[in-house]
Design brief:
The chain has helices at about 20-25, 35-40, 60-70, 105-110, 115-125, 170-175, 180-190, and strands at about 5-10, 15-20, 45-50, 50-55, 140-145, 165. It has three domains: about 5-40, no CATH class; about 55-95, no CATH class; about 105-190, no CATH class. It is about 35% helix and about 15% strand. The longest helix is centred in the C-terminal third of the chain and has 14 residues, at about 180-190.
Length: about 200
Amino acid sequence: MKKTGRNKNCLNCQREFYVSEWRLKDTKRGKFCSRKCSDKSKIGKFTWNKGQFQKGFKHTEEFKKMISERLKGKPTWNTGIKGYTNNGSFKSGELSLKWKGGITTENEQIRKTFEYRTWRRLIFKRDNYECQICGNGHNRVIRANHIKRFADYPDLRLELSNGITICQDCDYQWVLNHEEEWENYFNFNLETRGVII
């Protein structure tokens, strides 16, 4: 089978290379001897800006002014999504487009605070990340459980002596809705380990 094509010079390094006939027909191919030469030729010619290539354009103040004037009064791609404004900045709280009147419960607000997350981490560390009922934990989902209920004793919510690590399985199987029955066991557990006096 006879090869059809011709030799050409690379536009970047001027080295001669063979180009097949089908590559000659394609206007984008057959100009460079390798991908490396092709990539070198693109340096400084294209910059990525606002989701499209701007040929030969640098990030200048003129360009930013031109874009802001062009978009003035027109909604951008992210308007109305997740509380974004026309200029792309994010609004939170009452200013957000998704605001529903502050429906987050007090319980959720407390559990998302830094203090509560720190309390939880300290409970896990103290109990060596193990369930204090079955002894497992490293291969299970564990929880920092309140000995005296979270809802009934707001003053003890962040007290280290009011927390104990249990796994999700033991919580669902034994503890859930029976917290008062387990309270003595948990306190005994903490006393024998010397956590509380």
